[in-house]
Amino acid sequence: MINVLGICGSPRKGNSHYLLEKSLGAASQVAPDQVSTELYPLKGKKFAPCISCFKCGNQRGECIIQDDFQGLRDKWLEADAIIYSVPVYHMGIPAQLKAFLDRLGNSLFGRYAELFPGEAKLPRSLKVIASIAQGAHLFSGQEHTITDLINHALIMGCVPVTGDMWEAYIGAGAWTYNEVDRHVLEKKEKDGSLCTRVALHGAESIGRRTVELAMILKAGGLANSTRFQKDPVYTPFLERIRESPG
Ligand SMILES: Cc1cc2nc3c(=O)[nH]c(=O)nc-3n(C[C@H](O)[C@H](O)[C@H](O)COP(=O)(O)O)c2cc1C
C-alpha cells in the first residue's frame, strides 16, 4: 500500500482544498487497490510556533507544546508521500503550516538521536513530496511558495516531485483572478477557464507522479534492503516500507 497524505495549508475549506481533492483523486486512480489517500486540513487546527527551547533534542523528539502538531507529525511520519496544497500568503507559505514544519524539522533530530550518536543528523526519509500553490493574483508568490516546500522536502531527506510539462514545472500553480472567494477555482472550472484547467491538469499529474515515484522508491528499497539496512540513515525508510510492502 502507498499512503498518500494531502495537507491543505489553508485555514478554510476553499481553493487549496479543491485542488488537493483533485490531486488525491488522480493519485488513487494510479492503482486504486494499492493507494490510500487522506486529506488533512489545517482548518480549525492549532499549531503554535516553535519557541526555540530545544527541549525536543533531549526528549526523544517530543515537543513540549501540546497542540495539533503531534497528530499531524504522526501522520507525516507514516506517509509514503505528501502533497501540500497551500494558499500563497505574503508570497510564501501560511504561518500555520510554517509553524508545523519548523517544529517537525527540529524535533526529528531528537527523535532519531539514537540512530546517530553524537551527531545532529536526519535520516533519508525518502518520502515523495509535491506542492500545489494558488493565490489571488498572477506572479504573486506561487513559485516562491512551492520553492519553500521543495526546500523543506530536501532538508527532510525526501524527494521533491512535480507534475508533467508544461503545466507543472516545479509544482502546480493557480490564481483566482483577483477574487478572494473560497470557491473561485471551482466556479472557474465550470466556466471553462484556461488558467484553471491548466492548474487542474497540473494538480492531477502531480497526484499521479507522486504515487508512481513512491512505488518506484518502495520497490527499489525493498529490492536492496540488505545493502541499505547497514546504514542507519535508511532505517526509518526501510521500517516504513516493510510495514506495508504491497
Ligand atoms: C494573509 C493573506 C496573505 C495573502 N497574500 C497573498 C500573496 O502574497 N499573493 C497572492 O497571490 N495572494 C495572497 N493572498 C490571497 C490568497 O492566497 C487567495 O485568496 C487564495 O485563493 C486563498 O486560498 P484558499 O481558498 O485555499 O484559502 C493572501 C491572503 C491572505 C489571507
How would you characterize the overall build of this protein?
There is one protein chain. It contains 8 helices and 6 strands; from the N terminus they run βαβαβαβαββαααα. The N and C termini lie close together (5 Å). The protein is α/β, with parallel strands linked by helices. The chain is globular. It has a single domain (2-243), classed as Flavodoxin domain (Rossmann fold, 3-Layer(aba) Sandwich), CATH 3.40.50.360. Helix 1 (15-30) crosses helix 6. Strands 1, 2, 3, 4, 5 and 6 form a 6-stranded parallel sheet that branches. The mean pLDDT is 96. It is 44% helix and 14% strand. Flavin mononucleotide is lined by residues 10, 12, 14-16, 87-91, 134-137, 140-141, 176, 180, 182.
Fold blueprint:
Elements: E1 2-8, H1 15-30, E2 35-41, H2 69-78, E3 81-87, H3 95-111, E4 128-135, H4 142-155, E5 159-160, E6 172-175, H5 184-191, H6 194-223, H7 225-228, H8 235-243
Parallel strand pairs: 1-2, 1-3, 3-4, 4-5, 4-6
Helix pairs in contact: 1-6
Flavin mononucleotide binds at residues 10, 12, 14-16, 87-91, 134-137, 140-141, 176, 180, 182.
Low-confidence sequence ranges: none
* CATH class descriptor: Alpha Beta
Name of the CATH homologous superfamily: Flavodoxin domain
What sort of overall outline do the alpha carbons produce when their principal axes are compared? globular
- Helix/strand order: EHEHEHEHEEHHHH
Question: Mean of the pLDDT scores?
Answer: 96
Taking the sheet with the most strands, its summary is: 6 strands, parallel
